[in-house]
Amino acid sequence: MQYLFLSGSLRKESLNTQLLQLAAKHTGSPLSAIVDLNQYNIPLYSGDIEAVGIPDGVQKLSQKIEQAQAIIIASPEYNYSISGVLKNTIDWVSRVRPMPFRKKPILLLAASMGPIAGIRGLWQTRIPLEGLGNYVYPDMFSLGVAHEALNEEGFTNPDDQKRFATTLDGFSEFAKRFS
Questions:
Q1: For residues 1 and 125, what is the distance between their CA atoms, to the nearest angstrom?
Q2: pLDDT tens digits, 147-169
Q3: Which end of the chain is more exposed for a tag (fewer CB within 10 A), N or C?
């Protein structure tokens, strides 16, 4: 299975990117890629920019999304909703034809310093992804107080590790149905 791991955070020390790294390690697929959105220089969406042409960074990211058989997204919650970086990325990629997000199995993850664990943002993230025709896995994984729940080796609580592994394994089985 070829996974694409996408972080909705641009921060270098992002807890969500750290969660993606653990997901990539768990899946063990050598064909998988972790995307750093900083490398794509995606501007804020504007119809005026689109009229001139889809930016190169959007085209390159769209090719990676198209090649992936399954996508795992980890994103922070900003003001009870989807990260602006991730929403902008989804909006731009949705303008590419053929639309690369269509009919992809997607798993949503969140790591948050707060106790609510980013779950409100994940519910908001489902909306545009499902609207674009993706198969968003029903279960989502959110990790609260993640700055204490994660360390260099992984999870500090074995129950979090077990819940994470169960979610990823369930998603892998789900994603196989679409490949």
A1: 23
A2: 989 998 899 999 999 999 999 99
A3: C
